[in-house]
Design goal:
- There is one protein chain.
- The protein is α+β, with helices and mostly antiparallel strands.
- It is 20% helix and 36% strand.
- It is globular.
Length: 341
């Protein structure tokens, strides 16, 4: 749809924290509610575009999407193209890993990123061009093409997800679409009409919960995709990596997530009917969740999956199999401490 505009309501979901804050001293306490008025000073559209004739617009937006599109074919809509604005300069490595995990990719580091990325100039703008293939499923031709544009500390991400041949056929249309975009951040100012805002919880990103970590787990750098990271080591140098991540929606569903993780520790993917070999029900802060336990030949995975308020929460520890056995009870104690505010 030529000249489509992102309206204030959709964009403000990304930029404004809800104006009612729940104050809890623990998960079991009664909440004290403090309300704040958050006026918007939005001044017009922040993104516009012109769609190629072969593309159609998806009416429903989810999560951080400002626009969503598909390629029209005789067999119906195929592929998925999106517009995702971030009010920060997000790491290319983090973005690549967020999409790579859906394709069974092992962790993408800076060196690997150099091999799958390039700088492409479109009009007077330079985009970081990242192409990720499906390494998790034999014979799969699924591909993700990511175009990132950075300007004044903000990042605009345009993901194109689809079959490899489809993306090749539509790459010129994708470039034309990017050329047509007008990107301008709206003015949004948040003011609280109260004596003072209460302090945020320890892990406040995306309304994240608080938790308690074993003293010997060492905190490492979080990122724009990881809300928290910890490392566990033993005297032999064996390591475990622990992470807390959260994404809009179900990120492909339980089967896709579990199979991606199984591939990371050398276990073949399973069918839906065989999922119960690895998952069992668990409760996190009085919310139904799923516990994933998988042990490979050398590495193991323990994870909890919680779908809460249209977001997926992943609490995951992976690494040396023997060390994982030692730390399993500590991981379960951590899960018991999780508390959403």
């Amino acid at each position: 749809m030529p000249g489509s505009f992102l309206r204030a309501k959709a964009f403000l979901r990304l930029c404004i924290v809800v104006g009612s804050t729940w104050m809890l001293s623990s998960c079991g306490d009664q909440p004290e509610i403090r309300s704040y008025e958050i006026p918007s000073e939005y001044t017009g559209p922040v993104v516009s575009w012109e769609l190629p004739e072969e593309w159609g617009e998806n009416p429903d937006l989810s999560g951080p999407m400002a626009g969503s599109f598909h390629v029209k074919t005789d067999l119906g809509p195929v592929g998925r193209i999106g517009v995702m604005p971030f009010r920060e300069s997000v790491s290319s490595v983090d973005v690549a890993n967020m999409f790579g995990m859906e394709l069974g990719q092992a962790t993408i580091d800076e060196e690997k990123l150099k091999k799958i990325s390039e700088i492409k100039k479109i009009g007077d703008r330079e985009f970081e061009w990242i192409r990720i293939s499906d390494d998790g499923h034999e014979g799969s031709t699924r591909t993700v093409l990511l175009a990132l544009y950075r300007n004044k500390g903000e990042t605009w991400l345009f993901p194109f997800i689809g079959d490899r041949d489809l993306i090749r056929e539509q790459e010129q249309n994708f470039e034309s679409f990017l050329f047509s975009t007008t990107l301008r951040a709206g003015k949004v100012e948040i003011r609280a009409k109260a004596p003072a805002l209460p302090p945020p919880p320890t892990h406040d990103a995306h309304g994240a919960p608080t938790w308690e970590i074993p003293k010997h787990w060492v905190k490492t750098s979080a990122s724009s995709m990881r809300l928290a990271s910890y490392e566990v080591t033993d005297r032999n140098g064996s390591k475990l990596d622990f992470s807390v991540t959260s994404f809009p929606g179900d990120v492909g569903g339980t089967l896709a997530n579990v199979n991606r993780w199984l591939g990371q520790i050398g276990i073949d993917p399973v069918q839906e009917a065989d999922l119960d070999k690895y998952i069992s029900p668990i409760v996190l802060d009085e919310k139904d969740a799923q516990l994933v336990v998988a042990e490979g030949e050398t590495d193991s995975l323990y994870a909890a999956i919680l779908l809460f308020e249209d977001r997926s929460w992943f609490f995951k520890i992976t690494g040396n199999r023997e060390l994982a056995k030692v730390e399993k009870s500590n991981f379960l104690s951590f899960l018991e401490s999780v508390c959403f505010h």
